[in-house]
Design goal:
CATH topology: Spore Coat Polysaccharide Biosynthesis Protein SpsA, Chain A
CATH superfamily: Spore Coat Polysaccharide Biosynthesis Protein SpsA, Chain A
Helix content: 40-55%
Strand order of the largest sheet: 3-2-1-4-7-5-8
Largest sheet: 7 strands, mixed
Oligomer: single chain
Radius of gyration: 16 Å
Structural class: alpha/beta
Distance between the termini: 31 Å
Strand content: 15-25%
Number of helices: 9
Amino acid sequence: MSVVVPAHNEEERIAAAIEALLAQEHPDFEIIVVDNASSDRTTEIASTYPVTVVREDRKGTMWACEAGRQAATGDVVVRMDADCVPAKDWLVRGEAHFANPEVVAVTGPYDYVDAHPVFRAATTFIQKVFYRLSHHVTHRVLKQGGLLVGGNSFMRASALHAAGGFNTEIVFYGDDTDTAKRLSTQGRIIFDPRHSVPSSARRFQREGILQVAWQYFKGFFLHSFVK
């Protein structure tokens, strides 16, 4: 397995993310940190750990993910955000789904551990119920793509390659839906509501809950049914 961690100015969080990955129970995986045009000590800190550090100066999550994908050697490419701190069995649980050869991707919800308890509970419920329902309708009923939670996604490397890799024309919102739509042509995508990963609600805190929620919804709708 190859875990790709895109990181832009993540000097305050990258160490915790890497240490959580190094503690994984999985016996065979690599960690690829992609420094995406950082101006801080992200590379310096990441380089103190047994990981591969790749520099991508074209700023954008998809540029970073694509650079990581091209550097990856594993059969499964895992995308994880730099503010995620996964449990020790995260990789093992994610990989288990690929025992089914029809499965090309696996995803699950975020657990916003640093958010207000009400927000944390509400977003957990929304993801486990409505995200799962949205995925079922788009992927299994309409066969119009599917849903991926970007920083908690496992993708079969061969299927991702056949789908054209990550779409670097997308800046941010809608990137995971675009990836899911193209991967859905290669096989089955699983949304596992139990396969959560602890993450940060900092984007909601910085940009506003309604603004971020709207951008996510718009990106999902546009890339599922319009583009």
